[in-house]
Structures are given as C-alpha cells and as structure tokens.
From TrEMBL:
Protein name per Swiss-Prot or TrEMBL: Hydroxymethylglutaryl-CoA lyase
Gene Ontology MF, one: lyase activity
Domain Pyruvate carboxyltransferase: 1-267
InterPro entries assigned: Aldolase_TIM, HMGL, PYR_CT
Keyword Lyase (UniProt): yes
Similarity comment: Belongs to the HMG-CoA lyase family.
PANTHER family the record matches: HYDROXYMETHYLGLUTARYL-COA LYASE
Family matches, as Pfam families: HMGL-like
C-alpha cells in the first residue's frame, strides 16, 4: 500500500492562519515518517485559500536530504502550475477535475470544458518541466447537487484524460457519500482494464465508515490511499458541513491487518500527531 499524507487538505479550511515556521517544523517531521508522498501545499489564489498562501516560502525550508518522500502541490489553473513547476523539489502537481459541473465552478471557477483545456495545458507544462500530473476525480462517487453521475461517466472521463498522457488518477469521495457497491464497481472496472495507469482513493468519511470504504477499494485492487492525520480537514469548497479526511492512523491499522509492508518510522509518526494537535 502507498500512503499519500495530505496536511494541505487537513489545514486548508482552518481559518486561524498557522504560522509558516510551525508548518515547516510539522512538514519536516512528516518527511521523517517516510510516506510515499506528501500533499504539502497549493499554488492557488491567496484570497481563496489564505492558509496555503505561504507554500512557495515553505519549500526551501524543507529537509529533503535524507528523505525518499516526494512532494505534491495542488494547482487550479495554468498560472499556479507554472509557479509549481519552477521548484525542482516538487515531483507531482495535483489538479482537481470535477465530473460535477456545479462543483467544478465552485472549486476552480471554470466549467468542465474549460477545466479540460486547463488540464491539457498543465500536462504540457509538466512534461516540459519533468513533473507528473495527478488528476483528482472530484465528486468521483456522486455529488449532492443533482448533477448526473454514474460509473460510466467516471470511466469516460478517465479514458479522455489518460489520452493526454496522464497516468495517475485518484478518485475523490469529496463529500463522503460514496456507496460501497460504487467503490467496488469503479475500481473493479478501472484497474484490470488499465494496467498502465495508477488509481488511488481519496476518501472523506464519517468515523464509523472508514474501514468499509478502504476495504472495498483494497479488495478491488486499489493500493494508493490518501489520508490526513487524525482525519482533519475536507474540502471547504464542497459544502458547509465538512466530512473529514480518511485518518492516516486508520490506514496504518489496515496495513497491519493485511500484513502489507510498512517501513514508516512510527516514532516520527506519533511525534507528528502530537505536533498537529498543537497547530490546530
């Protein structure tokens, strides 16, 4: 199993600004844990997301010397992508591509068609700058807005987007309403049919639902999972009542249960948990 730790998702909707030096200290502790990737910041409008407005300032202060962990930054348009591509330390750019028209407008101020054009341009930048683009299929398991959704729509969009040369897709349960049958159906269709692509799950969940969601995806072949320590966060653009992120500690419990290889530094992990509580 591959764990993507998402502190950016945990704190982006937290209104009191977390001092930059505290974020740096926290991120450096996470880097010692040994996660595959850390979703550490965003190159988006400071007005829209003030909590991550210091992302560029943070990068040079991260201790990457003895870490195999890769950095991922979220972008919402070509301008943000160009900024992120200027930093050699960043391996991945993440773009939230919503298959709900309503949410795409709310999240990136663009229609789906405009967003598709953005993805093409961002992918070109990534290829030029030796970055890899990760597409988050927002509202990948349904939406609360009444926009049409079914598994076939998800499959069609992934086919269209992968034609641009994109190879990593994370299906996002943006508002925590994924049904177990839909999770199983989607991954059971996507993974065997696309062995050249990597598929992940970015679940938002109520505390009582964490395991059944992971289990459904895992049993269907998914091995890439996003999490956030203690389950904090969620998408502030989605709705007023946030459903929290998948708690990373639950992902670790699941890894141990399935006897998945685990090379994480658990002492650093516990230190990071305690530090996070002081941040928020």
């Amino acid at each position: 199993m591959k764990i993507i730790e998402c502190p950016r998702d945990a704190w982006q909707g937290h209104h009191p600004f977390i001092p930059t030096d505290q974020k740096i200290e926290y991120l450096n502790t996470l880097l010692r844990v040994g996660f595959d990737t850390i979703d550490f910041g965003s190159f988006v409008s400071a007005k829209a997301m003030p909590q991550v407005s210091d992302t560029a300032e943070i990068i040079s202060k991260l201790n990457l010397t003895n870490s195999t962990t890769k950095l991922l930054a979220i972008v919402a348009n070509e301008r943000g992508a160009a900024q992120a591509c200027d930093f050699d330390e960043i391996s991945y750019l993440g773009y939230p591509f919503s298959i709900s028209e309503t949410f795409q407008l709310r999240n990136t101020n663009s229609t789906i068609e405009q967003s598709l054009n953005r993805v093409q341009e961002i992918q070109k930048l990534c290829e030029q700058k030796n970055k890899e683009l990760v597409i988050y299929i927002s509202m990948g398991f349904g939406n609360p807005y009444g926009d049409l959704w079914n598994p076939e729509i998800v499959l069609q969009w992934i086919e269209k987007l992968s034609a641009f040369g994109i190879s990593i897709f994370s299906l996002a349960d943006t508002v925590g309403l994924a049904l177990i049958d839909d999770i199983s159906s989607l991954f059971n269709q996507l993974i065997p049919a696309n062995p050249h692509l990597e598929f992940g799950a970015h679940f938002h969940t109520k505390p009582e639902d964490w395991k059944i969601k992971i289990e459904a995806a895992y049993n269907a072949g998914c091995r890439r999972f996003d999490g956030a320590l203690l389950g904090y966060g969620g998408c502030p653009m989605a709705q007023d009542d946030l459903i929290g992120n998948m708690p990373t500690e639950r992902l670790l419990d699941f890894m141990m249960e399935k006897k998945e290889p685990n090379l994480l530094d658990l002492n650093a992990f516990e230190e990071a948990k305690e530090m996070f509580l002081r941040l928020v």
